[in-house]
């Protein structure tokens, strides 16, 4: 195991926190989307605006792709070869791109304001944290891909 992963970034702990955040985003976004579709106005999901629907769809997609990139990264860590690292890099790049789209929709939701429930506000904060942790994960994976000191030979 290279020195870079354990000492500089604490890769195993970082991946565990990112996995937990992704599962939390899936849970909160699924609950909000379910109540948005059913039209329960008592829960104050965020009104009947299209921005909320797109935000919920992109946040679920970002979290599912984040879990998928975590699984690809775990396989890469297990096999420790260049080809598995390129798979993990591609998966994390796609996951970060969708997470960045969800982050943009979070910024739009916060900018417009309005009546939003606490679950939607928690989901917004989780997506913001997920965006930065996904970017950190992408940076770590790319460091291992482009420099043999930090990744497989």
TrEMBL record:
In terms of superkingdom, the source organism counts as: Eukaryota
Q: Does the keyword NAD apply?
A: no
Q: By its UniProt entry, which InterPro entries does this protein fall under?
A: AWPM-19 (IPR008390)
Instruction: Could you list this entry's UniProt keywords, alphabetically sorted.
Output: Membrane, Transmembrane, Transmembrane helix
* Pfam entry (one): AWPM-19
Q: In the UniProt record, does the keyword Membrane occur?
A: yes
What name has this protein been given in UniProt?
Answer: Plasma membrane associated protein
| Segments passing through the bilayer | 15-33, 53-73, 85-106, 126-146
What taxonomic ancestry is recorded? Answer: Eukaryota, Viridiplantae, Streptophyta, Embryophyta, Tracheophyta
What is the source species? Zostera marina (Eelgrass)
């Amino acid at each position: 195991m290279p020195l870079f992963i354990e000492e500089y970034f604490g890769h195993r702990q970082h991946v565990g926190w990112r996995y937990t955040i992704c599962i939390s985003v899936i849970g909160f976004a699924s609950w909000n989307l379910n109540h948005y579709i059913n039209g329960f106005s008592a829960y104050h999901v965020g009104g009947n605006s299209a921005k909320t629907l797109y935000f919920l769809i992109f946040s679920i997609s970002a979290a599912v792709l984040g879990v998928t990139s975590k699984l690809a990264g775990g396989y890469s860590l297990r096999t420790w070869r260049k080809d598995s690292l390129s798979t993990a890099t591609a998966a994390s790049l796609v996951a970060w791109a969708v997470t960045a789209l969800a982050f943009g929709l979070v910024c739009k939701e916060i900018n417009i304001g309005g009546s939003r429930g606490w679950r939607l506000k928690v989901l917004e904060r989780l997506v913001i944290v997920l965006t930065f942790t996904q970017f950190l994960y992408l940076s770590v994976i790319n460091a291992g891909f482009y420099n043999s000191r930090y990744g497989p030979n």
